[in-house]
């Protein structure tokens, strides 16, 4: 169908529809980019908090828990005591006694795993540390994490050691990875054999096996130990849209559509229809048509349709003068 076979109203309606569709697509694209950016920031924030926690735990040699540990995660060392005295901070007064108890040592890796299990139950997202030189199978990277490690290694080789990170979608989940560099405190568990306490080394061998311990040790300060991998199960784009869009947004959009349509009708469509009818009447010899522009000067008007009306009115006047001259000659 040729555009010439369409009325101005139809053309305006089509253009208006195209504009609405493009604006909607643009809005959803912007929303998608904003959504991904917010998830990336969330993943980065979680990773930073876990890195801070691991640094704190490593600086104290791990986290000790009393009489309790997660059977699926286990512990590294155990202390048994027949009892003890309770003393206040920097106090010498005996505030009481406690019966026999057990203390269990959780190194930063075990503590991180327990926190991840808890966060997964409470909030639906999880995190863990993985490495291509893993000590336990739980720390072995999956395909997405293997790709993340390779991409982060590329960034490090290019000189980016400040923010070496990687993120993206893995099916329905959003995933974020950040590099973990070996600090001095990390050498207590991952340094060379002479840097690791013999008791701790034996405890790690007993838990993970000698081959696994050898694979995950021998690092020096500044080496890439692995990544902290954050997995977020988002609510979904549709849910986000319904949360963002409210009655005010819908009302503003409808009002904008009505304003546009009112403007198109009164400033474009109706004036063109009026000029079309006037030109038709003039062509039939009806020269008393009033276009409503008499007295207006074309150079003082900026509206193109009004200029066209002035031109048609001038044409009408010229035809009228010509017709009068013809009558006089007769």
Structure, described:
By secondary structure, the protein is α+β, with helices and mostly antiparallel strands. The protein folds into two domains: 12-84 and 98-236, no CATH class; 246-324, no CATH class. 53% of the residues lie in helices and 16% in strands. The chain is built from nine helices and nine strands. The chain has helices at residues 8-59, 108-123, 143-157, 187-190, 198-208, 210-215, 237-244, 247-283, 304-329, and strands at residues 63-66, 77-81, 84-87, 94-98, 101-106, 125-130, 165-170, 173-181, 224-232. The strands form three sheets. Strands 6-9-8-7 form a four-stranded antiparallel β-sheet, sandwiched between helices. The protein is rod-shaped. The mean pLDDT is 85.
Whole-number tally of structural domains: 2
Describe the sheet with the most strands: 4 strands, antiparallel
Shape: rod-shaped
By oligomeric state, this entry counts as single chain
What order do the strands of the largest sheet run in, or round the barrel if closed?
6-9-8-7
Q: Helical amount among residues, as a percent range?
A: 40-55%
Number of strands: 9
Radius of gyration, in angstroms, nearest whole number? 39 Å
How much strand? 15-25%
Separation of termini? 49 Å
Mean pLDDT reading: 85
Find the structural class using helix and strand composition.
alpha+beta
Order of helices and strands: HEEEEEHEHEEHHHEHHH
In terms of per-residue confidence, which ranges show pLDDT below 50 for 5 or more consecutive residues? none
User: Helix segment count?
Assistant: 9
